[in-house]
Write a structure and sequence with these properties.
Number of strands: 11
Radius of gyration: 17 Å
Shape: elongated
Helix content: under 10%
Keywords: Signal
Largest sheet: 5 strands, antiparallel
Number of helices: 0
Organism: Salmonella enterica I
Pfam family, one: AfaD
Protein name: Pilin structural protein SafD
Amino acid sequence: MPIANAVEKLQTTLRVGTYFRAGHVPDGMVLAQGWVTYHGSHSGFRVWSDEQKAGNTPTVLLLSGQQDPRHHIQVRLEGEGWQPDTVNGRGAILRTAADNASFSVVVDGNQEVPADTWTLDFKACALTHEEA
């Protein structure tokens, strides 16, 4: 009797941290923690957002407020071993064969942030060996 192999699925989780108040927010303040898990064969992970990039670094994003799109907060993706995807300009890459990886979304630079609501929308994929 043949046994079918299940297709491995990428799992992503993004947990938003404590709400912060309008005003001064310090560089490096953690806004969210993310995890990616993939049990299939892979050479790493990519995490990115389709939000507007801030400058030339693919890991730095400029988020617009939901209540007023003129309100902005600049954030960055970071984590141990994660590097900016300078080849494709899409977020951050972690080269690893491990099944799990974590990353953080942090405030990029000291900022004065107005009161608003911000949406964090990230995508993730496992890299194949050809993409390594």
